[in-house]
Design brief:
Elements: E1 5-7, H1 12-19, E2 24-27, H2 33-38, E3 46-49, E4 59-61, E5 67-70, H3 75-81, H4 87-94, H5 99-102, H6 107-113, H7 120-127, E6 130-133, E7 137-139, H8 140-143, E8 158-163, E9 168-175, E10 182-191, E11 194-200, E12 208-209, H9 211-219, H10 224-227, H11 244-262
Parallel strand pairs: 1-3, 2-3
Antiparallel strand pairs: 4-5, 5-8, 6-7, 6-8, 9-10, 10-11, 11-12
Helix pairs in contact: 3-4
């Protein structure tokens, strides 16, 4: 690994200042960035750790009833602190990686990276979450722009994510056993005005909403509502773990399971 400077700010303002330098990059739990650096696929001159920033950690509820999670909050903390208020999200966080990953990785780092097989993006899309940065607020529907692609600017830092809490929700994940990333993951969220379905791990374009399932489930929130649907295999990921047809089929199966579990 190459030489780099490690900065450990204690406030968001200090972090933003440190990130304004040339070739600086934020560092959450380092579950993606550090391996990437070890493989010499990235070589930032400065890493700005968010783990010591108290205002970016923890879970609370705002005046609108949304669950607000600091960007530097670990997956393990999300699991524990949303168990009673948002069990669907708690269950998702509990399925991420292994205990070492869950106690180190952060929700902000995962969302910022927008890995096509990451779990949180499915929950963000399915709930209509808001991603808060040091500069602005971005709706989830506008944030995830394709595989590893987001509107984040150079040096922009995710400080918080605000999740509307659905009446019922569940996340079903068919994981790749070695990496524990989602081969396919489906988050279903039922609100008073309809249902939203976020899908991760399946598409070459990254996380997406399955609109046909949303329409069907908004009229009939049951697994039977999606039993007659089919998802085109075109544009789905095909690799040694599963063909595009296989992933398309998994999306349908897991959606049905998520609805049943949420009910």
């Amino acid at each position: 690994m190459h030489n780099f400077e490690l900065v450990k700010p204690t406030t968001i303002a200090d972090a933003v200042q440190a990130l304004s330098g040339e070739d600086a990059q934020p560092l959450g739990g380092g579950q993606t960035l550090i391996p990437t650096m070890k493989q010499r696929l990235a070589a930032p001159a400065r890493l700005v750790s968010t783990l010591g920033i108290a205002e970016m950690q923890g879970v609370c509820t705002d005046d609108h009833g949304r669950i607000c999670i600091g960007g530097a909050t670990t997956h393990a903390s999300v699991t524990a602190e949303t168990a009673s208020t948002f069990p669907g999200l708690s269950g998702l966080a509990a399925k991420i990686g292994d205990p070492a990953v869950r106690n180190r990785g952060t929700i902000g780092g995962s969302v910022a990276n927008n890995d096509p097989a990451a779990c949180y993006p499915a929950a963000c899309l399915a709930t209509g979450a808001t991603i808060v940065t040091d500069k602005r607020e971005i709706a989830a529907d506008d944030f995830f722009q394709g595989m590893f692609a987001t509107p984040l600017e150079e040096g922009e830092l995710i400080t918080e994510i605000k999740f509307p809490v659905p009446q019922a929700s569940n996340y079903q994940k068919f994981e790749q056993p070695a990496s524990r990333f989602a081969l396919v993951g489906v988050f279903v969220a039922r609100f008073g005005d309809g249902v939203r379905v976020g899908v991760t791990g399946a598409s070459e374009d990254g996380v997406f909403r399955w609109s046909a399932a949303e329409e069907a489930l908004s009229g009939n929130f049951s697994a039977e509502a999606v039993s007659g649907l089919s998802l085109p295999a075109e544009g789905m990921i095909g690799d040694l773990h599963g063909s595009p047809d296989y992933r398309a089929h998994l999306v349908k199966v897991l959606t049905g399971r998520a609805v049943t579990a949420a009910s």
